[in-house]
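Q: What would this complex look like in 3D?
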Amino acid sequence: MSRQILLGDEAVALGAVHAGLSAAYSYPGTPASEILEHLVRRSAETKDFTAVWSVNEKTAYEEALGASFAGKRALVSFKHVGLNVAADPFMNSAITGANGGLVVVSADDPGMHSSQNEQDSRFYAQFAHIFAYEPSDHQEAYDMTREAYDLSERLEVPVLLRMVTRLSHSRSAVAVGPPRPQNPLRKGDPRDWILLPVNARRRFTRLLGLQAEMVRLSDGSRFNVLELGGDRSLGVIASGVAYNYFREAVAAEAAPPSFLKVSTYPVPEGLIRKLVAAVDSVLVLEDGYPFIERQIKGLFGVAGKTVRGKTDGALPASGELTPDIVRAALGRTPLPALAASGLPLAGRPPQLCAGCPHADTLKALNKALEDAAGANVFSDIGCYTLGALPPYSAVHTCVCMGASIGMARGAADVGLHPAVAVIGDSTFAHSGITPLLGAAVADTDMTVVILDNATTAMTGGQPTYGSGERLLRLIEGLGVPKERIRTIVPLPKHHDLNVRILREEIAHRGLSVVVAVRECVQEQRKKRS
Amino acid sequence: MKQDIILAGVGGQGILSIAYVIDNAALADGLVFKQAEVHGMAQRGGAVQSHMRLSDGSIWSDLIPKGEADMVLSVEPLEALRYLDYLRPDGVVVTGLTPYRNIPDYPEIDRVLEAVRRAPRAVVIDSERLAKEAGTVKAQNVVLLGAASPFLILKEDSLLATVGALFRPRGPAVLEANLKAFALGRSAALGL
Ligand code: SF4
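A: Here is my prediction, written as structure tokens for the whole assembly.
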């Protein structure tokens, strides 16, 4: 066994490779991007498996599902909200089942470090009736990913692995085992994979029939640890990184609380019953939503016991857990620390890079809309979302991938004018094409500004599908008239010209698309060095 | 034996390179480590921090609890101040003194440095001057790593070996400048 320094994300990637991975798909998104980045680098060297940045998460999921159908082991990974995009194939793949092992990695972002919500992917696993793992450290991230492939092939269903930002982006040494070979090609049985009602009912019944087995597996998992220790007044149930914070807080204590570490779902019901029966009160520690806590409490609670956690304010209901929050919830006094300086510390928020093309486009757009009191700029997910902050204050919405175009259309439909959508090239390819097709057919009175910086910049510069000539042909192909497709080069020296073009297209009472073409300066820099 | 360090600075100042060197030196010295870092949006000129934990036993949390850090190692003085309450009462602050002003409301630098120096053990280094002396102003992070090195539980040789491995691919001039930056930082801290 060798030891390697790996990010949590990379431990997952390597676990999949060593489990005999044949194909991996993903769309970039913090904190999951480093999984596929690692696999892309590795497959470029070894050439013995496929690793692809897909057009979006739904596509990625379907590609992985196809590889599984063909009998091979596949990985699909994304950030938590990516699973919303992939939810359709995800839910249905629980019904078809997996042929080759299929592992779905969803990386949650408690605290919303770089996300628009902090949804908890464990609910998705429950929703789909599939088994899920939640590692608490790097070694588990590696080991669980490997085991997840065995389980997926044994139960013939996809398995979910829930990561969180803290683990995804933490580095440590991992002991890795020998790799095993990939599966041979072996097609799935059409009767399982054609989800006509007659088949789907049978497959769903099978899935429901597996639930008791999944609970048994969870109860027997080596990753779930029950310790009925010296102190039986309190029993702690902790999952994922929250388990680490708990152990940290009581590391020096002679008689720490009894505890159960939960690392697999459906929850290990037998182990939970044992712990609850042995202690007077229970504290549930989990990063994300109170998933375990609500199941234990149900509507009526546990007779004769108090169960505490996020639902009763013992821990904050939102935000990321920290060792300090967990320590306080355990009633332990804070450690003596140096006092803060007392000086008011100016924040240092992220900002657009110096020379960023978005800055020039947003400045021109602000100028073009200066006299349009009723205007609204619907924006999207990307570096340009930072255009919401001063000095630009140029965009007014950011909801989800591709929302800008659909929202601008809806607003235009009910009379808002001017309605402007601002979307990057990668986000446009991800989910902007379909709403633009609808708007082109309707000739909606709105202006779509596509920022073509030739990359997926915010997540570190992954490839993009809808850039350059291909993007222009794509827009034309959707039915936008050629004379209503304008191109600008966002540079300070073109400011006046760009303002004029934007004004003309905003004034046009119908659909226009303005494409702002200039490469991300970070990408330019990478190519030079 | 254990040591907890908060690494701080602004995106682009080479915080993650310092972390890389410490990670690899820890592995070479047979220590266990965990290093939580910030990625994504925070890199665009925003504040960057990393929690670095070293131990010869086990490490539970990826994040350092408040009051547990032995050192705040910052490339920039305002960023050093942000994490003072993570330090144990006898913890040490190692920081460069040159402000990185990419925000409109950067406090007066004299007040910032005064607040840093109020920490019981503050090692304030003119890392910009020393890096230039070493041959490249980009090596400020390595100057500060050198300045922190006398306080680290890592062997100086292990740190130097990783600095070497990191910069050797960028050519002999870059390598030499960074090794010199490390040495200048180290002797500046020892001379204080
Ligand atoms: S990474 Fe590229 S697109 Fe993003 S802010 Fe920097 S220059 Fe602009």
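A: To summarize the key features: Residues 69 and 87 of chain B are 5 Å apart (CA to CA). The mean pLDDT of chain B is 94.
Q: Very helpful, thank you.
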